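Q: Got a minute? One more chain.
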Amino acid sequence: MFRNLEKDYLANKSQNLYFCLLGDCKQSDKEIEEYDVDVLRCGIEETERLNKKYPSFNFPIFHFIYRKRKWNEVEQAYLGWERKRGAITDFTEFLLGNLREHVIQEKFNLNTIYETKKEIPKIKNIITLDADTDLSLNSAFKLVGTMAHILNKPEIENDRVVSGYGLIQPRVGVNLDITYKSLFTKIFAGLGGIDSYVNAISDIYQDNFGEGIFTGKGIFNLKLYSKILKNEIPENTVLSHDLLEGNYLRCGLASDILIMDGYPTKFSSFITRLSRWIRGDWQIIKWLKNKKLNLLSKYKIFDNLRRSLLEISEILAIVYFSLMNKFFNNSEILPLTSIFIIMVFPYFLEILNNIIFKREGEQTQKAFTPKLEGYLGAICREIITIMVLPFKAWISFKSIVKTLYRMTISKKHLLEWMTSEEAEKNLTDSILNYYKMMSFNIIFAVTIILICKSLFSIILACFWIIAPIIMYNISKEIKETKPKDKLNKEEIVYITDVAKRTFNYFYDNLNENNNYLIPDNYQEDRKRLYVERTSSTNIGLSLMAVIAGYDLKFICLEEANTILNSIIETICKLKKWNGHLYNWYNIKTLQPLIPEYISTVDSGNFVGYLYVLKSFLEEQKNNELQELIMRVNNLIEGTDFSKLYSNEHRLFSIGFNIQERKTYRFIL
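A: Always. Here it is, folded:
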């Protein structure tokens, strides 16, 4: 977790951003567990290591908080007060200075922010993430900027935000490495249909009503959170608090800001999470009568309840039409087909979308994506949706009944929580366990066969009976395959052909007419096929293309040296800034293009290419190439990177704008 915290910091370096791992204690029948000591020791060591590695003179950047367990009479166990909601609330109140010293000591086993004994910076916003969520590059800056925008300034009325936003939800993508874990994640991770929570891109609420849905990952205003939510949600009653927080604080969806999240790698852990979400959705049913929430907020709550009843309704409809067939000889094929059309309709729209918006030439492209996309992915999701229908209906029914019982009768265990990660660890993977878990699928399949003995029903029941086998197999972890030592003959022919056709672009355009500078791009659907500009990166790549062309025997050594010499001659003629090539040149006039700009990255790449060229020429041990080698060496040594380096920041700048005489910020 601290490694993830470090990565988040490196992707979002700032003097005004601080990173804290907010650790909550695991539920137990004891107030103190033996492993608590190890957690505290590790937390202290890691925060000290990171703060030593990335020193800050004003206030330490990295922190760790570990809460104490408290006896919960309702849960009959020791756990952190109000779980995640309580952790965020305690953290918020602490940062605002609303907790007295004895309260801080009562709530926290460890709080490195408090123990620094330094004045806490005035924190305005908190970005809250789950343990498996990563901040992408500069996403924290964008979230802070979005919150600070004047049009997003929140206005409060009747103890809720009525305009602007007190909370911003970014777009949540799925970590790429997760999609490699199992066939289940390849089929479902980040592609929608089975999970409405992790695919916030274009949102019907945000697009039409100016509000989004908070899913637990985003940025919120501390003072607003404390003022509006501190005493709004009763203790021991709400498991899923995200939707309520978004409704009270008015959540905005920033679809242009991306953060990356995890995803259950097994069907079993997915179902555990689904059950938790359904229980959480039904626990907030009483907020439908809340006078502070507007009609849209209440509809969001209602829509979640409606969604949890979908599979139950479909199963009841199947039973009804099967009974009608048995007792009144009504054909069940048409009504059952209608039900399944309703079930797979979202995936039909997905296929239709692929057809309508299919890019030209997409079929011929080679893509190395781990996900099952397009028609195949949609079809797989359709089939699996039908196969697990009885089981998902049972999970929904059980979760709803359990929640209503606990809310109205027992009043206990409303905060029952198991993460997807814990669920994956607890379940022993075997076909037998999957059959035990999905036993309702089998019971329902046999029932349908007994009620209605038609061929259609038997085929459908067979799908449900084999579903546990399918779900077990697609949930198995994909083992890393050993990389190939050698390519087969067919692969070599294919790759060589791609290389030859790629090389031909350089070979055909590195000519006297273009001053031996490679055009930046070629497009068939415009009048002027080639553009008359190039960049320092393009020039460097053209050098590499010629060398690769010789290595692959597309051209002879003499011809390669001739082309390389011509390119270097042109490079020597180009206008430079402290030895650096400008970002763009006109290949006909050799003049830099406006704006005249030096890119640190592109210059670094180009010098790297020159080193490769120098080695290639020196390996030939040809005296006739000494002058060319000397010119290449002069280009390398003449490129002065000190002009782009800040001794104060100990960092390179992004680049330098000649017209503005401006060095761009130091983040490299």
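A: DSSP finds 25 helices and 21 strands in the chain.
Q: Perfect, thanks.
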